[in-house]
Amino acid sequence: MIDSLGPACGTELENAGTAINFFAALRILRVSPLIIAHVTKNEGRENAPCSVFGSSFFSNLTRAIWEVRASRWPGTSDRGVSLHHRKGNNSRLYPPVAFHFGFANGGIQVRRQDVSTDAQLASGLSQPDRVLAALKHGKLSTGDLATEIDAPEDSTRKAAGRLEKRGLIRKFPDGWALVARESETE
């Protein structure tokens, strides 16, 4: 485990040579490492996936990237943590997972949670996943859907159209809705 990438590499993280030399040295060890890295600031792009700080080669030369997002629950010491699989050279991309950490009576309770139920964690979801999560609460017009997922109306309409082609949602005269699955209708 390398905590963290920046101190392990030294200076000039923006330099491609730094990233290439780091991974060349790492391969000599012949182990699968877990590397913790800082991310760039997503100023003005809250819903965008983060990227590793420095040269793009730090992302390009990895086999897998998992982005970790955290949330704080106001008024409590509880926390939410989500894991988003952003890159997988040797596997498919796995869906995001989230956990709720509750701190009480000197102990910690950990339970799985739906990523979409925590606004801070849901911001790491893709736009189609945010559309699906928003429609869990009922039918929405394109405008209301765009407002709900905090995205431009045009890109929301396109994302919804792609989900409709996949048979996951349906367009009605008064808005978009999830398609009921057979197990839900039985």
Characterization of this structure:
It is a single chain. The protein has 186 residues and is α+β, with helices and mostly antiparallel strands. It folds into 3 domains: 1-62, no CATH class; 64-125; 126-186, Winged helix-like DNA-binding domain superfamily/Winged helix DNA-binding domain (Arc Repressor Mutant, subunit A), CATH 1.10.10. It is 32% helix and 25% strand. The protein is built from 8 helices and 8 strands. The chain has helices spanning 5-9, 16-28, 57-60, 119-122, 127-135, 142-149, 153-165, 182-185; strands at 2-3, 35-36, 64-72, 79-88, 97-104, 107-113, 169-172, 175-178. The strands form 3 sheets. The chain has a 4-stranded antiparallel beta sheet, with no helix packed on it. The protein has a two-stranded parallel ribbon with strand order 1-2. Helix 5 (127-135) crosses helix 6 (142-149). The model has no long low-confidence stretch (mean pLDDT 88).
Please trace the helix and strand order, writing H or E for each element.
EHHEHEEEEHHHHEEH
Q: Terminal Cα separation, in Å? A: 48 Å
Number of domains: 3
**Sheet having the most strands:** 4 strands, antiparallel
Secondary-structure content class? alpha+beta
Helix share of residues?
Answer: 25-40%
Query: How many strands in all?
Result: 8
Strand order of the largest sheet: 3-4-5-6
Figure out the total of helices.
8
* Low-confidence residue ranges: none
Shape: globular
What is Rg? 20 Å
Q: What share of the residues does DSSP label as strand, in percent?
A: 15-25%
Average pLDDT over all residues: 88
